[in-house]
Specification:
The structure is a single chain. With 221 residues, the protein is α/β, with parallel strands linked by helices. Helix content is 48%, strand content 17%. Strand 7, helix 9 and strand 8 form a beta-alpha-beta unit. The chain starts with a helix and ends with a helix. The mean pLDDT is 97.
Length: 221
């Protein structure tokens, strides 16, 4: 698989607490240069980033991040604010405690409310697979499908683990035909990226892939 095909599905990501505008700007510059699918950045930078890229790169941001236990009205407000500021894609975190308690209707209704607040923009639902049983992962595939979100996403990258090949294969088996998969966290190489794509991931949340390619260019190969 060629590098360009991989880059087209990469959400070039920087979500660290200490992220500065100069670092975000580098993510945006690289995203535009290498043709990334989007730049995934903290909400506080969305307005400035959207103005900076001026339509040359979709801006993605995160909602209820990274723990997911904000109330639904807070998540809806965050989403509306992000869209108003220029975000074109939203990655929300579910309330994992609700899933553990089998409060499935609460999760379903929250996803629907946030999807509505996206106002036609892409919604990706982060389920934090490293904290879930196989049964819970399958249940979330069903809920995300019913809610009408565009993507189910493995991980925040801020918990005990990131995407695994097994999780992406499981998601591919159980999500509805209109739901795409985003693998995030733990994508350490171009080979990893290719394998996740082969298993069914249509987005990859990572900054490492662009860094690898930049490094290759710097070395002249």
């Amino acid at each position: 698989m060629d590098r360009e095909k991989i880059l087209k599905v990469v959400d070039h990501t920087l979500l660290g607490q200490a992220s500065t505008w100069s670092e975000i700007k580098q993510i945006l510059d690289d995203g535009m240069k290498y043709g990334a699918a989007s730049a995934c950045i903290p909400p506080s930078f969305v307005k400035r980033a959207a103005e900076y890229v001026n339509g040359k790169l979709p801006i993605c941001t995160v909602i209820g991040f990274p723990n997911g236990y904000n109330t639904t009205p807070v998540k809806v407000f965050e989403t509306e604010d992000a869209i108003k500021n220029g975000a074109q894609e939203i990655d929300m975190v579910i309330n994992v405690g609700d899933l553990k308690d089998k409060n499935y209707d609460a999760i379903l209704n929250e996803i629907k409310a946030i999807h509505k607040a996206c106002n036609g923009h892409i919604l990706k639902v982060i389920i934090e697979t490293c904290l879930l049983t196989e049964e819970e992962k399958i249940k979330m595939c069903e809920i995300v499908t019913e809610a009408g979100a565009e993507y189910i996403k493995t991980s925040t990258g801020f918990s005990t683990g990131g995407a695994t090949f097994d999780d992406v294969a499981l998601m591919k088996k159980h999500v509805g035909k209109n739901v795409k998969i985003k693998a995030a966290g733990g994508i350490l190489s171009l080979d990893d990226a290719e394998k996740f794509m082969e298993l069914g991931a249509e987005r990859l949340g990572t900054s490492r892939i662009v860094k690898i390619i930049k490094g290759e260019e710097a070395k002249g190969y």
